[in-house]
Write a structure and sequence with these properties.
alpha/beta; 8 strands; about 40% helix; about 15% strand
Length: about 325
């Protein structure tokens, strides 16, 4: 097993209290409903007033039409206050293994780290969770919100030609799937994909998934539970759509440039490295970072660690470069 980075290993070892030790408990089909209830009760869900941070940000909730027969999609739109538009936008999907999480909880960090530094808007997507909504529900929610966002860009004060798809974990997997959908349906063209430890492969049988079993915070037991919740008996099917699991894609040409990061000591390591390699083989652009000794979600558990700071700086540099190449603002270029 790869050794943990010393600071990250210490943070992992410090998970000692009853509340914190729940992070080490794998998700299983038997405890999933209880885990979802606990997450809904305990995960931060800041109000719009709190997200506005005494006027530093403009924040509103929007409703976009869902896919045919599906409910509306809630989008939480936020931007630095007083910055003239149209702004580039990071269209972001939260993590949570397809089964937990919400669109509001990720916004504070996104606004502080990216929106202020780069003068961009962030739209966070409240997609439906599994198993209450199975594939294709969550990815179609994300795609429908993207189409509506691009079509209403002028009213929203954003630039439809400067959209970056982004997400973390399950959300990064959905962002990758939405990029494939947009390419194949002739939908809104993004200028980049920010894929942070993406959840890409339902087969859950890579070397790293076995190597980190019972060790990583999101291990192959939790991973199997998340994919089962999303796909039901379609998990592992030979003909599964790449829009369900992007690792299944046989053609990764014609996609926006990707930033892919993963830890060397996490379940998703090998599938994420393989995805970057497949993009390169297809002639595309991908910047891959494998953070040494990092486990899944290391930056949330150890926000002050040196490796976390390096990862945040690398993401920011990539975003700045992508925006500058698309005709970015002084903030983006600087």
């Amino acid at each position: 097993m790869p050794a943990f980075d010393p600071e990250l290993g210490a943070a992992l070892a410090a998970l000692g209290s009853a509340r914190e030790s729940a992070l080490r408990e794998p998700f299983t089909p038997e405890n999933l409903a209880d885990r979802q209830q606990r997450d809904a009760a305990t995960r931060p869900r800041p109000t719009l007033r709190e997200l506005r941070a005494d006027g530093r940000f403009e924040v509103e909730e929007l409703r976009a039409p869902g896919a045919t027969g599906a409910p509306e999609v809630t989008l939480v739109s936020a931007r630095p206050a007083g910055v003239r538009g149209p702004l580039p936008v990071l269209y972001y999907l939260h993590g949570g293994g397809m089964v937990v999480g919400n669109a509001w909880s990720v916004l504070r960090q996104a606004l502080q780290e990216w929106a202020l530094a780069l003068e961009l808007a962030v739209i966070s997507v409240e997609y439906r969770l599994a198993p209450q909504a199975r594939y294709p529900g969550p990815v179609e929610d994300g795609y429908a919100g993207l189409v509506w966002t691009a079509a209403n860009a002028r009213a929203l004060g954003i630039d439809p030609d400067r959209i970056i798809l982004g997400g973390k974990s399950a959300g990064a997997g959905l962002a990758a799937a939405i990029a494939l959908l947009a390419r194949d349906r002739g939908g809104p063209a993004a200028i980049g994909q920010l894929l942070l430890c993406p959840m890409l492969d339902d087969r859950n049988d890579s070397f790293s998934s076995h190597q980190m079993a019972g060790v990583d915070l999101w291990d192959r037991t939790s991973n199997a539970t998340g994919w089962q919740a999303l796909l039901g008996d379609r998990v592992g099917a030979a003909d599964l759509s790449p829009y369900a699991a992007p690792a299944r894609a046989t053609d990764l040409s014609g996609l926006p440039p990707a930033y892919i990061e993963v830890g060397s000591a996490e379940t998703f390591r090998d599938e994420d490295v393989a995805y970057a390699n497949a993009i390169w083989r297809a002639g595309g652009q991908a910047e891959l970072h494998v953070w040494p000794g990092a486990f899944h979600g290391f930056d949330s558990l150890a926000p002050d660690a040196a490796l976390t700071r390096d990862a945040r700086e690398a993401r920011l540099r990539w975003l700045r470069r992508v925006l500058a190449q698309s005709g970015g603002s002084a903030a983006a270029a600087g």
